[in-house]
Amino acid sequence: MIRNSSPSGFVLAILMRTALCCLFLTASALAEIRVSTDFEGGNAEVVSLDQRTKTLHIMPELREGRGWPCWWYFRLDGLTAGETFTLEVQAQTKPFSGDQVLAAAWCQPKHAWLSSDGETWTASDEGTRSADKVMSYKLKPTAETLRLAWGPPFVPADAEKLLTEIAAKLPESKRFELAKTRGGRPVNGIRIGDENAPHQLWVGSRQHAWEAGGSQVGRGFIRWYASDEAKALRAKTCLHFIPIMDVDNATLGAGGKEAIPRDHNRDWADAPIYPEVAAAQRMIAEIHQKHGLDAYIDLHNPGAGDGIFFFGPFAFERLTGIQQRNYSRWMELAAANITTPRPVEPKYRFATYVKTDEERGRMSSGWVRANAGDFTISITLETGWNSPLMSVEGYSSIGAGLGRALAAYVEENPRRP
Ligand SMILES: [Zn+2]
Q: 302 CA to middle of ligand 1, Å?
């Protein structure tokens, strides 16, 4: 029986009713599907969200001046386990540069990638593309919350975690900050091995922010490099490794490719725009002057197929002597060691879509070729993305294969006459 009519009792009753009311509202709000992108790498412009049919239609949001709008990554809350959810993806309609609108295919992988914990990523069933160029994926969520992405993401927090893991495993390694980006964010790397070691390697990824698979390959590589299998290689080698170069665009969920005023991988000029490119140039030049650089490997992930290949030097057919021998030998060893989830193509491809020598010289691999030695190999490893084989595990296996190829290559001493 309630006899209490004092003001404090009255207030308490009101508060309790309000609390109950809030609980009820929270419960009903949970039934609503919500989209969020407020985290590293997050990107989605909601075109429509139909709560009744559980259909979300998005396009990659344009990050002005920050390159191709192809990447998307968002979290859904308020799902019902077991109830089909439909994701539709279309191209961004606004131009990313001048009057260029990006073709839909770049933002429409055959499979969307799903994760309930942000760590483990699985491919959805294959999507279907309509005549009006909308890709539709049918999903069966197993939990109330789901992360969805264009491909398995790799953001600066993942880079930090990876560098911490490797540094803990190899106490002799040394973490370093390559530079602060234009946006003031650190671009971090790790050096493994004695600075004065007889062999010197530089491996880096994500000059193109949307090519997250490049960092996934990098993670597989550096984990292999820190493993017991790589002990002999580590003993005679100094490696510099950068998991993400374009930290700004990777953080903002921007594509980066063909950014304004310059694509990251066209910035290897006399006066780079991006501080991390300038810093990499300084460090690589110094390493080469002091000790000689054996290999520069840039990891990319551009292809809408599932091929894995190397871009080699444009003049490959005309190379002679030690250059010819080393580039050819590298290809043989790479083909022997990069075999899963698909074998690497046993012949170089050439980035012939880059037309002028001036522009070719502003690509990182071209700049390194021009600024290193006869025995240096400077190449890019290009992985495709449009396949369920290109999973976290698939990319990681490519990275381990890359490590094994480097071990075999260094073992033969690429500096021998
Ligand atoms: Zn690229």
A: 5
